[in-house]
Amino acid sequence: MRQTDEESFRRFATRYAASLRRSAFLFCGDWHLAEDLMQQTLVKVYRSWSRIQQDESLANYGRTVLLRTWLDEKRRPWRRSEHTAEAVPDTADDRHDPANGVHRMWVRDLVHRGLLTLPPRQRAALVLRYFDDLSVAETAAVLGCSEGTVKSQTARGLDTLRASVARLSAEELGPTAGRVVT
Amino acid sequence: MTEQDVRDGLANAVAGEPPLRLDPDALMATARRQVRRRALVAVSLATAAVAVAAVTLPAAIGPRDDLAPAAPPVTTSTTTAPTPPPWPPPDVEPRVHTAAELYRRGDQMRAFLGDVAPTVLPGATDVEVAPFAGEAAGDVDDGQGYLTSFAHYTLDGNRFALGVNVYAPGAHSEGPDEVCVPDPDGCETLDTERGGQVLAVDVRTGRGDPPITILAVYHFRRDGSVVSVVGYDYDPAATLPMSTPPMPVTAEQLARLAVDPALGL
């Protein structure tokens, strides 16, 4: 790779690594795996760099590679053999400010926990639309499907997410809803 | 819950992200190593092809006059750097299937697996092939580039399963060298003469509690499609037993299925 290409890739990686890792975390629910997925994605982008850097939507190309990398990871035989897809591992949050209150944690936990119960492509559609703020057309390009499929995946994903959050709410509130803290 | 609640929830979910450890130089060094490894694979395949030609061509031509002078060796003063075999192949033509087409194709492959199982798995009984689908059981989307299924069976009183994953041309982004990354020493090339490259990947041997073994065979086809057949020494759909019996299938048995044109998209 030419020196100028190396420099432009370095700028790309520095600029997008964090956002790719955040998307990966929303996909998989594990910061360690998210870090691996981000690194794998950037390595793949590097290998294609001389071919793709004329593309104006480099960020979305990175998202496409990330999505495929994650789906491939999920389909690996040893992943398929595990029954841990719905588990949300504990992650340290040493920058979390308790003063932000219980509500933020509540929403954060429930939405992401609910998201992790969705089928992967519905999950991806919601992350791309509501976290990355992509348009329907951009989401379709990243997912490699039609705009109609994006709309249907998003609608089904939202329905499922609402149901999942409601169920999680009921489970968490149920035992303690009537408890009086003294 | 509104769409804004979803936006807020997703934004808040990543609020506690750990510090980013990104070293672009190390990352680029890793990428360069992979490119070099692809080049080595290309050299190996080219060498194998030359070796096959050297062995088969004289036999095909017939006996020759051993006293005839040998042709001078071809020499060249320049060497050409091998081109890494790209994956997917550059001329791959992606195939887009509707959900209805995928369901139909899945039904065909499910019937095929049911028919062929007694031949490939001698002695297997109670064979149950699950419907081919996507990530969620029974869920297939328009434009989905893959289908997966499990074939569950009983052998010598133990329940096992095979995983079958078929990918349309261009849908499997990882190439032959990349599937071996988790454990390069566990990879073995079985055959390069069956319309593509067949790899046996010893994915996981004797790890876990109880120790389990998973053996995957990938058939990378020239049209850019991929079929992987995965053998387990237990049934992934059932509760993990206290101990696992010996692996009931060999890489060759899995390869018989992986290369069969009846499987594929």
UniProtKB/TrEMBL annotation, chain A:
Domain RNA polymerase sigma factor 70 region 4 type: 110-160
Transmembrane feature ranges: none
InterPro entries: RNA_pol_sigma-70-like, RNA_pol_sigma-70_dom, RNA_pol_sigma-E_actinobac, RNA_pol_sigma70_r2, RNA_pol_sigma70_r4_t2, RNA_pol_sigma_r2, RNA_pol_sigma_r3/r4-like, WH-like_DNA-bd_sf
Domain RNA polymerase sigma-70 region residues, every copy: 14-79
Keyword set, alphabetical order: DNA-binding, Sigma factor, Transcription, Transcription regulation
Keyword Endoplasmic reticulum: no
Family assignment from sequence similarity: Belongs to the sigma-70 factor family. ECF subfamily.
Protein name: SigE family RNA polymerase sigma factor
Organism expressing this protein natively: Actinophytocola gossypii
Automatic annotation (TrEMBL), chain B:
Keywords: Membrane, Transmembrane, Transmembrane helix
Transmembrane spans: 39-61
Chain segments carrying region Disordered: 63-94
UniProt-recorded name of the protein: Uncharacterized protein
Species for this entry: Actinophytocola gossypii
Keyword Transmembrane: yes
Pro residues bias locations: 82-91
